[in-house]
């Protein structure tokens, strides 16, 4: 019954971005939402079938036939039993749907975080996502890495949603419903994947020119793999001696006003943290691949790939751009 997952390519960038399938939940709250959806769909389907049958039956059975004189049939007034039935029955149906919905909403919203829960702060920016792990000292962008819940050990991730500019909406259909990301009004939501894998999401509230290029990639890991990712992210930025030229260009330009590379003079917070840039698969929140070619094009003219992007072209020479990219490629 589930809809097929289409595998799509961004026309310009060649970035793989499968269309997420909300009928294939893999996370506790998303599973609860699906159960409710099937109940609502089933009740509505029964109503649809009964009403359609009565309508078609009346049209066919009581239509005017050839040779029949079209007189008005006898009219029925004031049947208490019929009136009670068509008031009480819909009322009962609405009450059942209301109770079931309220139960699911509260079940998800009021679920207390268990001891093993991971806390992540999600910050919406025009047009990318910042992910901060306050307890782990990790800051990354656009690609959220989280643990899965395994038998006997629950490890849901509790997300605190903040925005630094306009209203965004955080939505990973296979993990939970969507939640608005509002400036000065932190919202919370949680996800609990029970299966390792990559899950795709998208900003779901129009937030400006590049709303569509505000993709979310979630990588859910089994325990060992997640701990390994954490260790990698907590490590200091690689300082390879052979890329000193590129590093010097990077540190001497305005790059450092917006980007941070932990442990260096670069401490900007307007743009994505680059400490472990090369651990990500895409750049520009999914606008391009994270490869030498795309990094070169991106730094030369970000607006060519992502019109409206807030990162300016730095007007570096070709040699300088090459050197900066060579440096960035070492930030593993
Ligand atoms: Cu952010 Cu749409």
Describe the 3D structure.
The chain has 332 residues and is of the alpha+beta class. The chain has eight helices and twelve strands. It has a five-stranded mixed sheet. Strands 4-10-9-6-7 form a five-stranded mixed sheet. Strand 1 and strand 2 form a beta hairpin. It is elongated and about 95 Å long. Dinuclear copper ion binds next to loops.
Strand content: 15-25%
> Which ligands appear in the coordinates?
dinuclear copper ion
The quaternary organization reads as single chain
Structural class of the secondary structure composition?
Answer: alpha+beta
The helical percent reads 25-40%
Name the helix and strand elements from N-terminus to C-terminus, one letter apiece: HHEEEEEEEEEEHHHEEHHH
Shape: elongated
Query: pLDDT average, as an integer?
Result: 92
* Main sheet attributes: strand count, strand direction, barrel closure: 5 strands, mixed
- Strand tally: 12
Total number of helices: 8
Instruction: Strand order, main sheet: write it out.
Output: 3-2-1-5-8
Radius of gyration: 27 Å
- Low-confidence blocks of residues: 1-11
- Calculate the terminal CA-CA distance, rounded to whole Å: 42 Å
